[in-house]
Amino acid sequence: xxxxxxxxxxxxxxxxxxxxxxxxxxxxxxxxxxxxxxxxxxxxxxxxxxxxxxxxxxxxxxxxxxxxxxxxxxxxxxxxxxxxxxxxxxxxxxxxxxxxxxxx
Amino acid sequence: xxxxxxxxxxxxxxxxxxxxxxxxxxxxxxxxxxxxxxxxxxxxxxxxxxxxxxxxxxxxxxxxxxxxxxxxxxxxxxxxxxxxxxxxxxxxxxxxxxxxxxxxxxxxxxxxxxxxxxxxxxxxxxxxxxxxxxxxxxxxxxxxxxxxxxxxxxxxxxxxxxxxxxxxxxxxxxxxxxxxx
Lengths: 104, 181
What we know:
- Helix content of chain A is 74%, strand content 0%.
- By secondary structure, chain A is mainly α.
- Chain B is built from 8 helices and no strands.
- The model of chain B has no long low-confidence stretch (mean pLDDT 86).
- Chain B starts with a helix and ends in an 8-residue tail after the last helix.
- Chain B folds into 2 domains: 1-99, Four Helix Bundle (Hemerythrin (Met), subunit A), CATH 1.20.120; 127-175, no CATH class.
- Chain B is extended and about 70 Å long.
- Classes of the chains: A mainly alpha, B mainly alpha.
- At the A-B interface, helix 1, helix 2 and helix 3 of A face helix 1, helix 2, helix 3, helix 5 and helix 7 of B.
């Protein structure tokens, strides 16, 4: 009797769970930095799915996508954290439910 | 028999890493202290790098450790240090209906993803990069060859994105002079 290897759906289910945890954090937390970290968590889950599909389809395109997602995440981190610093200077808070100037 | 041992070991490593990953990300979401959140986040990223190694893409695993666990989390930790976030630590985490609704919607989303993942079988044309071939020529070399031939234009665009990110960060964080009347 041979044990089957880890199927791709296990990795995809793990990616789904991580993505959902990220969504819950982004929807329920008030601190903007933690919301930002949860968005990074969601990007990470999507990267995991991409790598899984690239591995099981014998292709390198998924790896390329992950590479570019990481590039965009780095740029996003730089700009987003600069926005948080500026926001804290002007408003003295980074709670997302107190920053409602652009809310209609 | 030895194959069985190898696959059993793979299953054990997979289960260990995935449970670590899920636990660390739950701690990220539920912890009140942003510094602790960032450190749990580093653990999540390192565990994901282990999964990438299991999936035979060592290049992405190393980049994940350097860029995500190293650079981005260090940036976040520095910004947490710059801001005074003690206020949230003193206040209790309140239970609000909107949070319950948000969590419920997120769980619905998870069930939807489960349905999509489990009921459909993977279909799609297989490429030519089998693990044996990539392993023989070296993962970094294979990735580099594809990156600099098929994906050359997106690579150049990525450099522009990074430049825009640097310039944007500098301009955003510059202290503005009060306007002279």
